[in-house]
Design goal:
Distance between the termini: 51 Å
Largest sheet: 7 strands, mixed
Low-confidence stretches: none
Order of helices and strands: HHHHHEHEHHEHHHHEHEEEHHH
Number of domains: 2
Structural class: alpha/beta
Strand order of the largest sheet: 3-2-1-4-5-6-7
Strand content: 5-15%
Number of helices: 16
Number of strands: 7
Radius of gyration: 20 Å
CATH class of the largest domain: Alpha Beta
Shape: globular
């Protein structure tokens, strides 16, 4: 494949650059995932895309290439739809509550896949918090499937799902720039449409991109503003939460504009402090922040745990994190 014309067309800046067609994007990203692009050209391609910005057709083409190559997981039989939590940013300012959301859903009998990076490069990752619970990352997709079937929760590194995408993600440490892989990992559904993707981003433009991609791909997803890049609702101020499915968008909760006190949050965000606080919430000793309770209800509804959203909210309000019961069918 000749990469020079791709680089030339995309490298003319925002005003002069040409977007790739969906098929061109699929072919190019396929070569990138396969490791077939020489290093010089690869660096030029990811830099040009970063400067130009990706179109939705390009991202759909990239996603099509990824779907042809990543390993898949199966929805556990007789269970609600799995919730997919992409965890790639980690916590820097406050505690990482992605593990809390996953453990709450597991208590309700909703299968949960947390996929992401193991090391946080100075941030506290979900995997590091899970280690405090003696829940180690799975080493393969097969092991992840067994964990889902047996316990309802799997923590899986990206390298096990898509080695090629993982390699592209690691380019950031060499180039100093994010690339298209950083957006794609948050749209990765290893269940191929059988899961519910919790899609979260900080910038409004990426939220619009995710909304368009979920609709175009026919996926089910919960869309919200990320907390430090992680897929949980900010415990101090609930973001808008949208439920995208079957070509429609439901606004389950509008955004709150005033900060909550949330005085029970710890000041430190290291893995041990986070795990200790999480245990107290799970035991009912500390109240679950209302934005997290709202997100939990959204997940129960979207997964099919219950077919009525008001019922989902009532379940969370009555049973709470310390009294969750396993799925009894919608």
């Amino acid at each position: 494949m000749n990469y020079a014309h791709f680089i030339r067309d995309m490298g003319k800046g925002r005003e002069g650059a040409r977007d790739l067609t969906r098929d061109e994007a699929r072919q190019l990203f396929g070569a990138m995932l396969d490791g077939g692009v020489p290093e010089l050209e690869l660096g030029a391609i990811v830099t040009a895309l970063r400067l130009k910005g990706e179109s939705i057709d390009e991202m759909l083409g990239f996603s099509a290439a990824l779907n042809e190559r990543h390993y898949s997981l199966r929805r556990p039989s007789g269970r609600p739809r799995p919730i997919v939590l992409p965890s790639y940013n980690g916590a820097r300012k406050s505690i990482n509550l992605t593990p809390l959301l996953a453990l709450l859903l597991q208590r309700y009998g909703v299968p949960v896949l947390v996929h992401g990076l193991i090391e946080g490069y100075g941030r506290v990752t979900a995997a590091q918090v899970f280690r405090e619970f003696e829940r180690m990352p799975c080493v393969s997709v097969a092991q992840g499937q067994r964990a889902l079937d047996e316990s309802g929760l799997a923590v899986l590194p990206l390298s096990a799902i898509s080695p090629g995408l993982n390699n592209l993600l690691l380019l950031r440490s060499r180039l100093g720039l994010r690339n298209s892989a950083h957006a794609l990992v948050k749209m990765l559904d290893p269940f191929r449409g059988e899961g519910v993707l919790v899609a979260a981003a900080t910038h409004p433009g990426y939220l619009d991109l995710m909304r368009g991609m979920i609709g175009a791909r026919g996926l089910r997803g919960l869309l919200l503003r990320a907390t430090e890049g992680e897929p949980y609702a900010n415990p101090r101020r609930r973001p808008r939460i949208e439920y995208l499915h079957d070509g429609t968008t439901e606004i389950l909760f509008e955004a709150e504009h005033d900060n909550l006190k949330a005085s029970n949050l710890p000041e430190s965000c290291d893995a041990k402090t986070t795990a200790d606080w999480t245990r107290k919430v799970l035991a009912g000793e500390i109240g679950l922040p209302s934005p997290m309770a709202n997100q939990l209800a959204c997940c129960l509804f979207a997964s099919g745990y219950t077919g009525d959203f008001n019922h989902a909210k009532a379940i969370v309000a009555v049973e709470g994190p310390g009294k969750a019961t396993h799925w009894r069918g919608a």
